[in-house]
Amino acid sequence: MRINCGLQVIETLLLSKLAHFKDKYPDIQFEFISDNRFVDIVAKGFDAGIRFGSDVAEDMVAVCISQPMKMAVVATADYFQKKGFPSTIQELTQHQCIGYRLSNGHLFQWEFEYSGQIVKIPPQGQWILNDDYPTLVAAKMGLGIAYLPEELIAKELANGQLIRIFNEYSYTFPPLYLYYPHRNISSALRVVVNTLRV
After folding, report:
1. Average pLDDT, whole number, for the chain?
2. Region at 5 (left for phi over 0; alpha for psi -120 to 50; beta for the rest)
3. How far is CA 25 from CA 17, 22, 35, 37, 174, in A?
4. 77 to 13, 70, 82, 137, 161: CA distances (angstroms)
5. Rounded to a whole number, what is the distance in angstroms from the first to the last CA of the chain?
6. Which of 75, 140, 141, 158 is the most exposed place for a label (fewest CB within 10 A)?
7. Residue 24: enclosing H or E segment and its boundaries?
């Protein structure tokens, strides 16, 4: 079964929820492809895709598989000790921010909810990556400030490896949806849908 995941962090979510398949459904083989471009899953031969609800085409069958994804702005205590804390979200442009390059070549802008508006901040800095996990590693190394899913960094926040700032302005992305082109699906995909459904 081929599933287009959209973002690498989604693969971890899928692995944790589907790990029991190795014993319960050993005949189902998975192939997860991470690609943050919009992909025509039918033309590319995928059984299903995963995207934020707002990004799923209206002609697809969509099943919610996660809670909304809250973002966090984080860095190490050492980074903040050396560079200081930004006092406003606009001051982030004066800091070493770890960027995220999308597959279309654009730099992902950090989004915040500020005074009832969505504010986008273009990250400036020496480091640009295209995967959340190296971004997390770079942040823990003190290379700069990162913008990451809260769920991904829960352990680092709890143990103090990373310090969170601007929590009051955190943006929350809509839930993730598994989507496919029609309701007549294989028994294998039906089991996956029923397992992932929130």
Report:
1. 92
2. alpha
3. 13, 6, 26, 30, 30
4. 28, 22, 9, 15, 8
5. 21
6. 158
7. helix 21-24
Which residues contact residue 75 at a Cβ distance below 8 angstroms, ignoring those fewer than 6 apart? 139, 142, 144, 145, 146, 162, 163, 165
To 10 degrees, the CA torsion angle through 79, 80, 83, 84?
180
Predicted TM-score of the model (pTM): 0.85
| The pLDDT value given to residue 167 | 97
Task: Say what percent of the chain tops pLDDT 70.
Answer: 99
Q: What are phi and psi of 143, to 5 degrees?
A: -80, -15
Q: With 90 as the cut, is the pLDDT of residue 16 above it? A: no
Buried b (16+ CB within 10 A) or exposed e, 34-63: bebeebebeeeebbbbbbbeeebeeebbbb
Cα–Cα distance between 145 and 33 in angstroms, integer?
Answer: 27
Q: Which region, left, alpha or beta, applies to residue 125 given φ > 0 means left and ψ of -120 to 50 means alpha?
A: left
Alpha carbons 97 and 145: distance in angstroms, whole number:
5
